Structures are given as structure tokens and as C-alpha cells.
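Just curious: can you write whichever protein you like plus the matching C-alpha cells?

***
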Amino acid sequence: MHSTKSSTLKSCKAIGIVGGMGPYAGMDLERKVFDCVNATSDQDYPDVMMISASRLIPDRTYYIMHPDSENPCTGIEHVIQQLAGLGATHIAIPCNTAHSPIIMNQVRRFIEINGLDVTLMHIVEETYRWVRENVASKKIVLYATQGTYYSGVYHTFFDPDGEYQIIEPDEADQKLIWDAIYSREYGIKAVSNPIHEQAVENFRLVTEKMLSRGYDSFIMGCTEIPLAMGRLRMPITKIDPTKILARALVKAVCPEKLKD
């Protein structure tokens, strides 16, 4: 009986989350995974494990802008290996910037070389698929970190076929977004719970300007942005890659439990 139970546990599909980028973004993904489950009891939820090890994973944007610095892929790979050892079969990295090719390509090679039996989900690819099925607008504003803008990872998925146009705010507005994330005084990384009002205000100012130019669809392309921008009450379509990734994870491990 004991061996049968152990075999069943080992055969279960399970979600692994590489947390710590930042810590509240990992928690947000885990919460949104549970929000996507049509459950009537504790046992209906999928197995989810998260390792939040910020100290092991340097800032992704800093690495992209300074490629001679320590590559965050080393810490990400360590966490993935730990999650795989715990039984995770489908692993998510709740950080858009970490999906930039200069980082993600090395992570994928690590998984392949080490023969890890895991499926690595891709937050930008999943967002692209969801947008194609659910968003009418073909011109979409991208709010993101400097590293995500610089890497062009969203353009790689959205622009090649000419169907979509990714709109980036101007330099001054990108600075407002950057400060809303990184400011040591009020940025989301420094003040996560509760979110500082100034961070919310920065997003409101930029969004009002983009709305005045005729843009009404926005990708919250940093996993910390929804923590602040989710509080905006404006006539816009807010595209949340974290929520999209959560749905993709649930669909992968227990599709029969995915909420409509």
C-alpha cells in the first residue's frame, strides 16, 4: 500500500514557481494559480511549490544592460533544479525580463543538458497566445522594465507577422514606470504591501497620456506592475501576463479543474 501511494505521488503533475523576482510577484502568481482552479475542497487544488531565493538571482535588467556582470540564470537554474527534485513537472518564472533571450536561452540549455524532466512555461509566449484569442486591438501598449524593452522579447513574439504593433511609452514615461517599480522610496520592489500611492499615480499619469493618444490596451509586462496598476479604475484593457501564465499552468497540470 505504501509503495502504491508513493508511486501515485511521484506520477502527479505539479507546478513549480521560481520566486523572488520580486518576492511578491511570485506570491501573486501562486495566488492567481489558485484563483484559476474550480475547486470544492482543498484536495481539488494542484500541487504547487515555490522557492523564493532573491539573494541567488541578481537583477535581470542590470544584467541585460551590463552583460559582464553576474548572470541571473545561474540562480534561476539552481532553483529549477531544486523544484524538479521536489517533483515539479511544469515550472514558471514570474519575471518578464528573465525571459529575454540572453537569460532564457541559457536556462533552457541547462534543463536540456541536465536532462531535467520538466516543462518550462514562457510568460511572453503564453501572453501572445492569449491576446490573439481575446483582445481585439492590434496596437498594444507595453509597460515593462528597461531590460524587457531593451531585449525586445515582446516584439519577438508580437511583431514579426505584422498583425500587432507593440507601443512603448516615450523616455520620460518609461522613467515614471521604472520609478514605480524600482524607486527605493516608493517603488513596488521597496514598498510591496501596501503598494505606495505614488507608484499607482505614476501608472495613472502614463496611462492617461496613452489613452489620450487612442491606445486602450496595455500589457503589464513586469510581474510587479499588476500589484499597482490593478488598482487603476480606467476604461482600458489590462493584460496581465501573470494571470495568463497562471491559467496556462492550471490547464497544463489539471485541465479539468480550470475555471471558464
Summary: Strands lie at 14-19, 47-52, 90-92, 119-120, 139-143, 165-167, 217-220, 237-239. The first helix runs from residue 2 to 11. The first strand starts at residue 14 and ends at 19.
